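S.,

As promised, the glutamic acid run. Input:
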Amino acid sequence: MNNVSHIPSYLSAEHLGPWETYLVQIDRVEPHLAAELRPLAPILTRPKRALIVNVPIRLDNGEIAHFEGYRVQHNLARGPGKGGIRYHPDVTLAEVMALSAWMTVKNAVVNVPFGGAKGGIRVDPKVLSMPELERLTRRYASEINILLGQDKDIPAPDINTNEQVMAWIMDTFSMNEGKTAMGVVTGKPVSLGGSLGRKDATGRGVFVATVEAARRMSLDIAGARVAVQGFGNVGEAAARLFADAGAKVVALQDGSGSIRNPGGLDVRAAKAWRQHNGSLIGAPGSEPIAPEAFWGIDADVMVAAAMENQITAANAGLIRARLLTEGANGPTTPEADLILQDNGVTVIPDVLANAGGVTVSYFEWVQDISAFFWTEDEINARLDRIMREAFAAVWDAATAKGVPLRTAAFVLGCERVLQAHAQRGLYP
Ligand code: GLU
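Predicted complex:
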């Protein structure tokens, strides 16, 4: 890559979008790659292919609405594309490109035989009725159909998509194929070939990775103070597992508000409260705090399980915790990363910390293909083992090279991907 930065010069460090953040991460990692693989590194700085689709749907009132959707296959060197589908008003091609690239690295870090892909539609699904959401999903699935298949590209849930959305995608693909194709998507309902343990898998992986780091840092999780940003599929499960392990969940933050209790919040009660009241504010035994006070909270562990770009140069310096676990994809900007490093905060990067979800997606895919289903205990035990092994590999490499965990994880993942390219050779 001739030591030239891949960041367009018109972008200042303060205004990096997710794709530029990813490119900075690749820039930082490149000098640490094995010399013989370095010439191949530019492969990582561009998606293999990207599809932009128009998704028109008939609304319940008879009008037609148009949405823009994407499916990006960042890299397929190690196997079929794998990665979730996001429905969110902020979805852009650049964001989906970044998310697909992080999937490439993540899948290689935990060594599941997948490439990286991601999809999304720029839509606020909360304003759509269920029938509208179904029509949106089925039309989108049809538009990206040319990319999909159990041996080509396998979607999964991401922000604002769930088991039902995956069932519609599986059905749409299957209807067009003329047969039931369970392995085309993961995160399905268990009754349709979904896997036990998939729902909590990302949060569980976040928990296991944090426990592994804490142990090496002589931090006892029982009694540790944990603050969790994001109370969706990932944050809620992680918070619950921390509480069950004897940690004190001292603060929670989501789009509805921020709450704290230095003595420890009741995570299940907070979930039930939010379900009934639509907000975390007022949850039993909690006091509200200003959203900007969240990152400075007195805690040993912070978990970022919301969205990209949450920890920036503006707030990274507030963090007093020893450990920051990235449950979300891309929550820390490259500038914030350097601040955290200077302040001695250990960051468990997204491509390692949140890989539990795709790991159990891999189990789901294997179970679908073999039509043989495992028990939840088996799944959790295998997930824990893969997370612990991946964590140890990254931790040991970081220690040996004297680099942050993010760099070590990227080196491990990128080298596996580039090694696959090297072994496959250049076509033609
Ligand atoms: N959307 C999840 C992620 O970002 C899971 C992807 C998958 O299971 O394919 O890792």
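The radius of gyration is 21 Å. The chain has a mean pLDDT of 96.

- D.
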